[in-house]
Amino acid sequence: MQNSRPFYSKYGEFFIALMILICIFSIATYLGKDGWGEQSTKGIGTPSRWCEMTQPGLVREPINTFSNLGFIVIGLLILIQIGRDESRATQSTNNPIIGRDLYAQFYGIAVIFLGPGSMAMHATHTNWGGWIDRVSMVCYITFPVCYNLARAFKWSKKTFSIVYLITNIAIATNMAMTTFLDLGFRHDFFGTFIGFWIVTELAICFPNSPRFYMLIPALLDISLRGASYTLMLWVGLAAVPISWNNPNIKRRYLPWFWVGNTLFVVAFIIWHTGDRRHAWCNPTSLIQAHAAWHIMTAFSAGAFYLYFRTENTT
Fold first, then answer.
1. Is 219 domain-assigned?
2. DSSP per residue over 57-104, as a string?
3. How far apart are CA 232 and CA 234, in angstroms?
4. 229-277, pLDDT tens digit by residue?
5. Could you count the other beta carbons within 10 Å of the beta carbon of residue 306?
6. pLDDT tens digits along 83-99
7. Is residue 313 classed as helix, strand or coil in its secondary structure?
8. What confidence tens digit (pLDDT) does each residue in 176-232 have?
């Protein structure tokens, strides 16, 4: 009897994630009780890169740090929803994001990871904290790309897991090399995978159309970064003949897809005002633009989860 399962078993993902988070924050509190080292203390009493005044103690940027709780809350809610979806066995659905499925678990974990990842940077002001922050961002943004490819090409869960994990391990390793050894390939992987996400979403929406949508990330590249070598990537992809094996994927774009995009775009605009060099920067204010970026993108991640749940394969 599925509904007679113990509460802690039904919501197992939630409780496991919660225990891991408690362990992470307990270890961080212990390790940081005497500070985070010389690199971290240099900026105390001055505005941080993201405007907020750098504080002594355990947390260098309190507002920008604790605003990341939004990611943790949204991610935990996603894991709770997995437990609530347990009755999917009696439902007629072919959407793997609904129910106790690997895809929903990966997405929820990726959203949660954004919280401690960003906290590591804003709380410690260390190189390793910045590395964890960037890794968490990549782990999130690569999920929709790999998921869309898995749905379009009918990958098995094993293939998805291998591609997703190898991609993130490779990028995280490269980032570690550039951060700690000054080696490797410096690149904005987060921005590039946003482009990949746009391409895969448009390919699912228009599976039989010419690949004109490759121009969209190319235009974004030009507007945000100027002419760069990544333009060659989009041109090259447009020249590759791609045939979706699963052209009948249908998703509802209203409201959640556009809610997620709107929140992210507005948050991105606000993000630019959170720089310490911006005229609107007030280091001692309780309202920090970068904190608003965290909160809005957390809700954006939640909206995209609800969007993925609208999928139906005809």
1. no
2. SS-SSHHHHHTTHHHHHHHHHHHHHHHHGGGGGGS----TTSSS-HHH
3. 6
4. 666 666 666 666 566 666 788 899 999 999 999 999 999 999 999 999 9
5. 17
6. 998 755 545 568 999 98
7. strand
8. 999 999 998 888 899 889 988 988 888 888 777 656 666 677 677 666 666 666 666
Please tell me the total count of domains within the chain.
Answer: 1
Q: Can you name the residues that pair with 113 across neighbouring β-strands?
A: none
CATH number, domain with residue 77: 1.20.1070
Reading the block at residue 292, the tokens are: 């608003």
Structural domain range at position 81: 10-207+244-313
Q: Is the pLDDT of residue 47 over 70?
A: yes
Report the distance separating Cα 57 and Cα 30, nearest Å.
12
The CA distance from 285 to 52, in Å, is 8
Q: 94 in a domain, yes or no? A: yes
Burial track 230-263 (b if 16+ CB lie within 10 A, e otherwise): bbebbeebbeeeeebeeeebebeeeebbebbbeb
Residue 116 CB contacts under 8 Å (≥ 6 apart), including other chains: 21, 24, 25, 68, 72, 132, 136
**What's phi and psi for 68, nearest 5 deg?**
-75, -5
